Amino acid sequence: MEQNLNQTILRTDISGMPLEWIHFQTAVKLYCAEQVAYTCGSPLLVIHGGLNARTGQQSVLEINSIIATLGSQPGLNSERYTPPLNNLAIFRRDSHTCMYCGQVFGERQLSRDHIRPLVQGGVDTWTNVVTACRTCNSLKGGRTPEQAHMPLLAVPFQPTYAEYVYLQGRHILADQMEFLSAHFPRSSRLRQRVQ
């Protein structure tokens, strides 16, 4: 097994609800604190610890790509839950595509645009923000898409918690993606992207 210490591990609660991405050091702490209820996915890392003073045996810990920890997080699956808004998640939700010109850009060339501008009473919510290249955002200015004659290419949506965890991931392994997408709503717009 080739070890990649930079690969993140998907942490879930005991019911299997995806919670977050963690590094192997955090996973080791959870194992040592006896907080890991079960594991899923493929073996990812084998960590060798120190020698036991009494037995002389070295501790070995195998860490899988998905670990379920004790406890649960009530409310994450409810319809009232709103994931925190951040540019990187918005850009990933919109596939790094400007929702006005349709071109794909790197993160440095993108910005958050408010469909109904803040100066016109718009709010900073998932359903009022889209990815825009800096040029289109500047052209649109403090106007709505209709006022600027710049139609939106897609309607923005608020991700569920599982979709938000996906949007936060960087290098998602196939087994992690299969696990995550099973928690997406049937109507998820992200579902087509991951299949």
Secondary structure layout plus pairing:
Layout: E1 9-12, E2 18-22, H1 24-32, E3 36-51, E4 58-69, H2 87-93, E5 110-114, E6 129-133, H3 134-140, H4 145-148, H5 161-168, H6 174-181, H7 189-194
Parallel strand pairs: 1-4
Antiparallel strand pairs: 1-2, 3-4, 5-6
Structure description:
It is a single chain. With 195 residues, the chain is of the alpha+beta class. It contains seven helices and six strands; from the N terminus they run ββαββαββααααα. The chain has helices spanning 24-32, 87-93, 134-140, 145-148, 161-168, 174-181, 189-194, and strands at residues 9-12, 18-22, 36-51, 58-69, 110-114, 129-133. The protein has a four-stranded mixed β-sheet with strand order 2-1-4-3. It has a two-stranded antiparallel sheet with strand order 5-6. The chain is elongated, with a radius of gyration of 21 Å. The model has no long low-confidence stretch (mean pLDDT 91).
Helix amount: 25-40%
The overall pLDDT, averaged over residues, is 91
Distance between the termini: 26 Å
Q: What is the CA-atom radius of gyration, in angstroms?
A: 21 Å
- Reading the helices and strands in chain order gives EEHEEHEEHHHHH
Q: What are the main properties of this structure?
A:
single chain, 195 residues, alpha+beta, 4-stranded mixed beta sheet, two-stranded antiparallel ribbon, 24% strand, elongated
